[in-house]
Predict the 3D structure of the following.
Amino acid sequence: MNQPNRQADPYPPIDPDHPDHLSEPTPPPHPYYQELEFRTHEEVPVRFAVRYGEDHRQPGRPGVVARRAVLGAGWPVLQYRLTASAHGDPHAYGLLEREVSAAIALERRYGQLKFGAVFARIVGFDLTAAEPFVLYRPPAGRPLTEWAGRLGADDQERITGQLSMAVRLMAEIDLVHRAVAPDTVRWDGARVRLCEPYAALRAGEAREPFGAAPWASPEQRAGAGAVDPRDDLWSVAALAYYLLSGRPDRGEGPPADLADYRRLAALGQSGLYSPRAAERPHPAELMRLLHVPDPLATGVGAADPLSRWRTEYDLQLARKRALRDGTGPGAEERRAADPADVDRDSPAPRAPRTFLGRIFGGGDEPPRAAAPSLPPDAVPDPPSRSRMCPHCLLPVAYDERLLVTIDAKGNRIPLDLSGERRPGHVADALRKAYHLCPHTADGDEEHELPVPYLTTGEPLSVALVGSSSVGKTHLLAAMLGEVELGGLEPYGLKCRPLNPEAHRAYLRERVQSLKEGRQLGRTGQQTFARFADGLLVSAGGATPRPVVFFDLAGEDLAQDGEVGRFLMGVDAFVFVLDPLRALRLPSLDPVREQSGLRRRDLGDEAFTTVLNRIPRQRGGLVAAPAALAVNKSDLVRFEPSVDRWLGRALPGRHDPAALRDESRDAYAFLAHHAGAAWLKPFDDCADCTLHFVAATGGQARGDRFPHGARPRRVLAPLLSLFAMCGLLPGAESGEGIAR
């Protein structure tokens, strides 16, 4: 950090050492005072005596009221609070949460630097309070609307230059302010100050309509295209014209009389007044045009502590690639010991992946010598169509004599369709019917499969893995809730229930309960592994493929017992990681204490047990594709690498580059803040992506989520697995990660 850029801070960060900080609850010193508990931008909990002023409604901020407050013996702050009456509007809460994320990102990056004074300075926040709020330092200066016609040429140029620098600083951390206007920008005679980032969005996200002419760009007002830092430069250009001419322009393109103002000629020639962001200069280019020094050109800011771990991620990918390709250390010795590898370098085609190959050989079957040709009359009949039962791992051939329906009490009632001559009725009956598994042994629990599992495309089984209370059940319910809302359709996927009645029951008991903000009960231990729900997923009119999801209790997964034997045949895994158990972050300690969870350096017991049980391919890697989901990421949402992903929606198309970047960031984050054992799924699986997700978006109080359940990016692990398994249109089979 360059020391010359620092200055004495008149408002040093609030922390527990502040003399007015109340470490323990105490009686208020005055009847007008109350106590206010919140977290600083570094997420340090503090408590102060507080005296409030009157509430004022805030235009353009739904459900938010503002009031002045005094902390301790005389520390003035400005509070923006989401009223209880707005709790029914999840959009209003999301806007406040997004504002806090942007304010914290700016404070952590620029708060201790001289030029950071151009931004609103956050004091603290509490997004879990009954009425969530954020605190800022009171603004200095007066709005530009009060300076109209009173500023000299030098001040006008300084304002334009400082605004350009502010846009440049925000763009560096992928933020776009979107609310730069004469009434939101203040000037104190020396520097500008932007208002609170209540409208900020991440660069690259879809534009949301916001603002009015002439201050907001035409694209921003229309909500067209993707957010771009040059959206803010339109606002800077409009303010430059306003300050010089004394009046606003119409806001559709270059002002009609722009040529009359020589001091704006260079800005006009640069394309700054173009209605299209792509035709405007970038913030750094505008600063050079205005002869404004770029504070970021000197490398101001702390070194990225995750950079070494991002490099480590690249090295680990290369290591796994070498093991998979048979070129890693010890490859020659393994080939000498394995006769199947003798002709490994020959161009012979590899056989498709089979179930037995997964069990005994891992991935693909090795090339085999051609079988001797048989005379035509000796060619055997083709084998009957069969599928492996995902429960007992034995083949099941479709047999109409084993069809049943299941009544409300769970009784299995034989289904005889031999007398039905109407094809439509037969198809409808089979859609809801089950097929008994013929391999139930004495003492085993009788089980069955939905008929479409045996009569449609190649099945895909997905198991969620993790210890008890990591949030597997909530994550699966959030995933299937997003699927039910059409979350997979932008990717070219259509979904139907594998069994309509079972799917309706799952939606009613799990998904709807979560949507209503209720905490789901823990998954009970089982004596037999049954899948929780299933879908028929199709792409582009292709034959639908059954996708079934297993959600077992953490205790069952952590024990190497019979209930987990189905894991040997699972096609794909979602390993669910709990930050409370994994991360060495002090900000999580209060939540750990409240929930009774402890951090573990040895990783997740369920991860280890499952990975030790499932088959390996050559090189010792697990063949089945996997995704490592950092669940409850909302607990660490303000960490830069987490906020970069959790703060933005999923892209509307498969993007391998973004998938790799998120995996790289998540790997680096876990490697830096957790023990190496927590990355075991990535280390052991040939193909494994990493994701930041949040199944609920907040902590439960009692049995409810006080501000509702707000899933974040929960479909990312599923889309990655679909890409690796060849189910996602536009993604080649195995394209879960860059190889």
